[in-house]
Design brief:
Layout: H1 8-20, H2 23-30, H3 34-48, E1 53-56, E2 59-62, H4 64-88, E3 94-100, H5 102-109, H6 113-119, E4 123-128, H7 145-152, E5 156-161, E6 168-181, E7 206-209, H8 219-225, E8 237-239, H9 242-250, E9 255-259, H10 260-268, E10 280-291, H11 298-313
Parallel strand pairs: 3-4, 3-5, 7-8, 7-9
Antiparallel strand pairs: 1-2, 5-10, 6-9, 6-10
Helix pairs in contact: 1-2, 1-3, 1-4, 2-3, 5-10
């Protein structure tokens, strides 16, 4: 005889509370009152005959039974969602949400997306560049990524960092290096001080990308690596976003140090060039990050990840 199961609403309330370790946040996610969540947890504990959540100094702590039950419960909800999706026929027109830093999205991902759309016309995409998810290597190290995927309703992330994303499926997408970038007019002989060697930087304005992400390249590091003296690494124009800095470089306002991969489309179009081939390899890289669990859009996610890896392996990517 099969064991009687508790109501689905009680299980859903428990899963949300366990994930957030907060009755208030669980109530907000499920669009019910905090009292309703508390009632569902109490009912579930009475149904089971033992405690699931304990309170210690105003902090919620999961019991051993709750910790053991949480992974299969989450998997069960994912399978239920997949079953409902199949009943609705959503496999015929799937949609996935992809997060990437806006610099990577605008300069690398979006210019290539038309090729993915041609290959997979049945997959719709939502691209998010929410700045709140940019790597600081603090939240991502703590193993909280599972909750990030769920709370932001993201299927795939493309993150720039060291690849430490506990509890996730992680694949390296691109190893990167930084290089000087400028308008072709700055290397032209028609310019009063054409850029032919690093020492020529003394005659040009340095452009700085001061975007607040871990590992963004700095002129001081590049100049030190290549033994360039006489150039003040702090002077020039500073921007809080790489796209703004690149526009200034395209406009001929100075020389920018940035990740080459982000400039590839502008280089191919002749808007930017690399005045001297002196790269600075970066420790960080771009990674494809996915949750360990398989969601209802797994086919679409797999197709997108395979496409990303193909694009990244192409020459000049």
């Amino acid at each position: 005889m099969s064991q009687q199961l508790p109501p689905l609403n009680a299980l859903r309330a428990f899963e949300a509370v366990a994930r957030h370790l907060s009755f208030t946040k669980a109530a907000a996610e499920l669009n019910v009152t905090r009292a309703a969540i508390s009632h569902q947890i109490k009912f579930l504990e009475e149904f089971l005959g033992f405690a699931l959540i304990e309170r210690h100094n105003r902090t919620l702590v999961l019991t051993k039974a709750a910790v053991a039950a949480l992974p299969p419960l989450r998997s069960g909800f994912d399978h239920l969602a997949q079953a409902v999706s199949l009943m609705h026929g959503e496999r015929q027109a799937e949609s996935i949400t992809v997060w990437a830093a806006s610099s990577f999205a605008s300069k690398w991902l979006v210019p290539r997306l038309h090729r993915f759309s041609r290959q997979h016309p049945d997959i719709d995409m939502k691209i998010s560049g929410d700045a709140g998810l940019v790597d600081t290597d603090t939240a991502t190290e703590s193993g909280a990524m599972d909750g990030v995927f769920r709370s932001h309703q993201v299927d795939v992330m493309i993150r720039f960092g060291f690849g430490h994303y506990a509890g996730c499926r992680v694949d390296k997408l691109l190893s990167v290096s930084a290089a000087p970038l400028c308008s072709p007019e700055l290397v032209s002989e028609a310019h009063p001080h054409p850029l032919h060697a690093p020492s020529d930087l003394v005659f040009h304005t340095l452009l700085h990308d001061d975007t607040a992400y871990v590992g963004h390249p700095r002129w001081a590091d590049w100049l030190a690596l290549h033994g360039v003296s006489g150039v003040n690494a702090k002077r020039g124009l500073h921007f809080n976003h790489v796209s703004l800095a690149m526009e200034a470089a395209i406009d001929g306002q100075g020389v920018l140090l940035s990740i080459k991969n982000l400039a590839q489309c502008d280089i191919e179009a002749g808007r930017l060039c690399i005045p001297f081939a002196l790269d600075m390899p970066l420790e960080q890289a771009y990674y494809i990050v996915r949750p360990q669990y398989e969601g209802v859009r797994q086919r679409a996610v797999n197709a997108f990840v395979a496409w990303l890896q193909t694009e990244a392996s192409a020459p000049g990517s």
